[in-house]
Specification:
Blueprint (H helix, E strand, L loop, with lengths): L2 H12 L1 E6 L4 H6 L2 E3 L1 H10 L4 E5 L2 H10 L4 E3 L15 H10 L4 E5 L4 H4 L4 E3 L4 H6 L5 E5 L2 H8 L5 E4 L5 H4 L3 H10 L4 E4 L5 H5 L3 E2 L2 H9 L5 E5 L4 H8 L4 E4 L13 H10 L8 H17 L4
Parallel strand pairs: 1-2, 1-3, 3-4, 5-6, 5-7, 7-8, 9-10, 9-11, 11-12
Helix pairs in contact: 1-14, 3-4, 4-15
Bound molecules: 1,3-dihydroxyacetonephosphate and iron/sulfur cluster.
Length: about 300
């Protein structure tokens, strides 16, 4: 029997749902019940009624699923699938920064550990970062952990943003030179980039969107050709949704840890019902409040 069939059988037996991020391997996206961005996945996880959620993405996404729906068993098929940017921020340093700036509100991008989220007033994703920041009381905002997303949000708010010095290595690898070269090769193409990109890349883009926001942008556009300034697997999702359009990836834009989830370890997770995401109830309670505050605000793109 094919791996895909065995997964489908076990999924039924376990009453499981498979959620996958837009950067997952094509074959993983193809067996998922839902494929989306961080915000869409958090929404799906929070309303999931299945007994088991198999989360195909990186650590912080699986943790958020567990925090938002703690009654469910959340399986993360490969625990080494971590986000290096989330690992750039630690709760002790956040607490020190909060002491230095007591009147600041703290926004934690979802790409943070549950411990860092627990220190925040509110979370955000790339789909609602501007909306979240502008919803706050204080005119001073500590923004964790992506300095590029912080600088993007700064373009749309009068508040002062104190950025945490973190970044995504995958999006940092997308340079002006690479985009300019692609533009020369495909002069008809529009440039869509993720807000985790460097500011100088954002400056030359035609649109700046979360991964799901890119889909919505393309749906509303009459252009045929697009340069996609984010992780390369986004193009698998886009090509399925828009088979009549042409998409160009940026060479080297790969998130290696996203690729650690495979059909083999999804099947193994369903067989052994592990590795399971477990967090202490106290930590989950603290991290849930900023996540739920974000969910109530909804999408901004
Ligand atoms: P999205 O929420 O836009 O899918 O982005 C998640 C991410 O990790 C980007 O690198
Ligand atoms: Fe983290 Fe970047 Fe990978 Fe997104 S693409 S999961 S931010 S390392």
């Amino acid at each position: 029997m094919q791996l895909q069939e065995r997964i489908a059988e076990l999924k039924k037996e376990r009453n499981a749902v498979i959620l996958a991020h837009n950067y997952q391997l094509p074959e993983v996206q193809d067996i998922a019940d839902f494929v989306g961005d961080s915000l869409g996945l958090a929404k799906q996880a929070s309303t999931a009624e299945a007994d088991v959620i198999v989360f195909c993405g990186v650590d912080f996404m699986a943790e958020s699923a567990k925090i938002l729906n703690p009654q469910r068993i959340v399986l993360h098929p490969e625990t080494k699938a971590c986000c290096p940017m989330a690992a750039m921020c630690d709760p002790a340093s956040v607490r020190m920064l909060k002491k230095d700036f007591p009147r600041a509100d703290v926004v934690a991008y979802v790409n943070t550990s549950a411990e860092c989220k627990a220190e925040a007033d509110v979370c955000c994703t790339s789909a609602n970062a501007v909306k979240v920041v502008n919803s706050l009381e204080s005119d001073l905002v500590i923004f964790l952990p992506d300095e590029n997303l912080a600088s993007y949000v700064q373009r749309f708010t009068d508040k002062s943003i104190l950025p945490w010095p973190g970044h995504c290595p995958t999006h940092e690898s997308i340079t002006v030179e690479k985009i300019e070269k692609l533009k020369k090769e495909h002069p008809q193409a529009l440039v869509l980039v993720h807000p985790e990109c460097r500011p100088e890349v954002i400056d030359i883009a035609d649109g700046v969107r979360s991964t799901e926001g890119m889909l919505n942008f393309i749906r509303g556009s009459d252009k045929r050709e697009f340069i996609i300034g984010t992780e390369k697997e986004m193009i698998h999702r886009l090509s399925k949704e828009f088979p009549d359009r042409i998409f160009h990836e940026v060479p080297g834009a790969v998130c290696p840890t996203m690729k650690l989830i495979t059909l083999e370890n999804i099947l193994a997770a369903l067989e052994s019902m592990s590795p399971e995401v477990t967090l202490s109830p106290e930590l989950m309670d603290k991290a849930r409040a900023p996540l739920e505050r974000m969910m109530a605000l909804g999408r901004g793109d």
